[in-house]
Each structure stands twice: as structure tokens, then as C-alpha cells.
Amino acid sequence: MTRIDGQPILTAAQMRAAEGEAIAAGATVEGLMARAGQAVAEQVRRLAAGAEVLIVCGPGNNGGDGYVAAAALRQKGHAVRVAALAEPNTAAAMAARNGWLGSVETMPETAAAPVMVDALFGIGLNRPLSEDVCHGVSRLIRAARLTIAVDVPSGVSTDDGADFGDLPPVSLTLALGAVKPAHVLQPSAARCGDVRLLGIGIQAESAVRVASVPKLQAPHAGAHKYSRGLVAVIAGRMPGAAALAASAAGHGGAGYVRLLGSATDRLPHAIVRQRFSADALADPRIGAVLVGPGLGRDEVANDRLEAALTCGRALVIDGDALHMLGEEPARVPTILTPHAGEFAHLFGDLGGSKIERTQGAARRSNAVVVFKGADTVIAAPDGRAAVHFRAPSWLATAGTGDVLAGIIAAQLAVGADMFTAAVNGVWLHAESARLAGSSFIADDLVAHVPAALGACL
């Protein structure tokens, strides 16, 4: 059982293809089911601490995993009961059912137990659960002190994170063979509890991964303020937003930050303030230009955005600037950081999961796209993507997006490639929020960025 950070994310179709490759190499469906069920049983036995276990099984192969787990637990002398929603309807599940020598109770009337294992539906579910099933599963989850889902919790859509049933979250989800989109996309991720990966002998490969802790390096012995990265932040009608972004860039690793065009005095003295001009963006030492936070949407804002777009420097584009962008693909290395409303304005309804929509937006714009939210997806034009799903909900407050843009700009100026800078920035932003605790404001968040960065060295 391993953490899922950095692990590949496979859709249902990709998972079936990986299973098919394993079978072509000599494995069998029954053999893969045996590995899965025994791995589940080992974790359930360890976590149950001797308490009675109830495993609820569906008719498909997910239910087959449950029957195997039940038989393995009984063989170890553990108290275990099985309840079924219906008879098995696949050959492998039938064989697993025959390997369980105990009685099978009827779902959803079965009595609750201290530990409940949900093996009802696997990655193939694509429709809402019936009211009777929802009620029965909900009752068993609420009555248990520990609930464990096999692969995915009942009632969630594997590929897009949709929630088909109004069910309580489980304590733990054991992902079989690979992480699935349902484990990291909302709202289904909230139903999964903690997620851990169980290896079952399948080779999982994907361009999409779970975001992980960045691997950063301290400045080398000969570093100076310019070699560490110069960030230029363009201010506008709401200078406080640009000030937040500039402060975040300074705390996020940049050696030098210039705030262009701001009249605000609420800044650390280390942030250099200058009048805005197109010439100010011509400094070849600039590693990243950030435009958008508090920019406004008037003629002055449009002129400043145009200066940024034509300055030839790597860009981070956020906030108001996203509303003024045209549809022309990026001509210089660019990172776009839209929230849901800005994403819809820029790209319309692309269809598919949030991962697929972000990948499509990255290809269309020729930019790295950071689609923000409770689940943040980062995608590059070449198809790579990362999903960060552990950000504290306290980030839902004004100004935190400006802080994120500043951190990403700093990571870009320091020398990370576009995709890595965006992924690193999202992780540092979320970790800063975790360190800040509850009910912070964006100004408080900036102060915790150095500690988050230090944790990556």
C-alpha cells in the first residue's frame, strides 16, 4: 500500500488496456483478481484490528475482488461476513464466489458491522444508483467505524469524477493497479477519503500523474539576485492584487522582483517599484513577466497586456488579462491560470473530464494551463498533465489566486520549465495554505511560502 503522489492516472479504458497487456503477457483475469483480493484482505486485516468485517459485493469483477478478500480473511481466522447485491455475472466473479465457503447475506437488508468493505461497483459504473442501493450502502457506511472502498467507492464515475449517489465518504479507498481520475477529481475525490495504491502486477503508464512534492535546490554558492531570477509584475487598477503577486514571487524563490506601475505602498521594501513602460520589459535579465492580477479591463489595461504579449519574455497570465486575451495561440512560453469562470470564457465547453478539458485548452492555446479549483489540473500542449487535489478549502478567499500566480512566476524565473514551474507553484501554494492553518487571508498566505519552499529542499 503506497501513497499516490506522483503516480500515473489511468482512465477506465486505459486500465482495461493495461489489464489486457498483462493477460497477453501470461496473466489471467482470475489471477489478477486473486492478487487484488488478497492485497485488499491484507490491508483490511491490518486496519480492522480484530473487529468484524462486512464485505458487500456487486455482480461484477469488483464484487469478485470482494469474495477473494473475504475468503483470504477467513483463512487468516478473521471474523468476516459477505453480503451481495446480486449473483455474479462474470466468469471470474463466479469463480471467486465459489471460493467463498461461507453464507452470503442479501443487500441492502444485511446487518451493519464495525468495518465495512465496499466491493459493489468497480470502474465500469456509468449510471446513478437506485434509491434502495443508496439507502442501504449509506446505512452501512454510517454504522461502521471504518469503511474501505475497493478501487472506487460505489456511486462515482471513474473518468470524470461525477457523483451518482448521495452517499457518505469512505475512510479509505484502495486503488487497484493504478490511480483513477475519480480519486483526484471533485466531487468524487471527496467521497474517497484517503487513497492508497495496491500493486496487482499491472504496468501503469500515462502522461497524466498525481502532483507530487517538488524537487527544488537551494541557490548555489555563486548565486546573485539576477541569477536567481528576475520577475516583473505588471500592476493595474487594483494595485493590491499585483502587490500580493509580487510579494509571493519574492517569497517564492525569485532573487529580484519589480512591480511596474503600482502606486501602493503596502509592499516589502525589497520589491522594486517602477513606472510602467514597454521599455521596462526589455531588460534581458527578466526571467518571467506576470500580468493580470488587478489589471482592470480598460484601455490602459489593454495596452499593458499588449506590451506584455509582445515583450518576448516568458509570461504568466492571470486574472483580468485572461478576459482580454484573443484566441490566437501563444507565441512565447506562456502559463495561463484560469479559474472555472475564466476557463469557460477562454475556451467554452470543451467536453470531457476536467483533465481532458485542460489538456484540450493547452493544445488550443499552445500554453501551459493551470485550471484552478478544489482539484487543480495542470496541462502542457504536449499532453502531459498533473492533478493536485489536496489543497485546503480555506484557499477559497480573495487574493489567493494572485499569490499562486506570483509563486508560479518565481518558479519560472528561477529556471524551471513551463510545466514544472506551474506544477511546483500549485504544490507550494497548497502547502503554504496548510501551514497557514484556518481562516487566513491572502496576505497571511504569503508569509508561509518560504516554509513551504524550504520543505522541498
UniProtKB/TrEMBL annotation:
Reaction(s) the record says it catalyses: (6S)-NADHX + ADP = AMP + phosphate + NADH + H(+); (6R)-NADHX = (6S)-NADHX; (6S)-NADPHX + ADP = AMP + phosphate + NADPH + H(+); (6R)-NADPHX = (6S)-NADPHX
GO molecular function, one term: metal ion binding
Domain YjeF C-terminal per the UniProt entry, residue ranges: 208-456
Binding site for K(+): N62, D118, S154
This enzyme's EC code(s): 4.2.1.136, 5.1.99.6
Single GO BP term: metabolite repair
Protein name in the entry: Bifunctional NAD(P)H-hydrate repair enzyme
Species of origin: Sphingomonas mucosissima
Organismal lineage: Bacteria, Pseudomonadati, Pseudomonadota, Alphaproteobacteria, Sphingomonadales
